User: What shape does this take?
Amino acid sequence: MTQHNDDDTFIIEFIQLGNYVKATAIDPVSGKEATVMGPTTASQKELGNLAVKKLVRKLKKLD
Assistant: This one.
């Protein structure tokens, strides 16, 4: 069983790569991360939410 963050607090990092933005959500407890990419026209909130949803799905799969 993998331990993960019970209060759902994640670190979210945004990096612009040309016409795209890479959003990475990191669980500080387990060190697991999930990344999504989107256009620069997408909001950080949208990309951050997608990255967090992907990370939560990944953490649940590991349990």
About this structure: The two ends are 5 Å apart (CA to CA). Residues 11-62 form one domain.
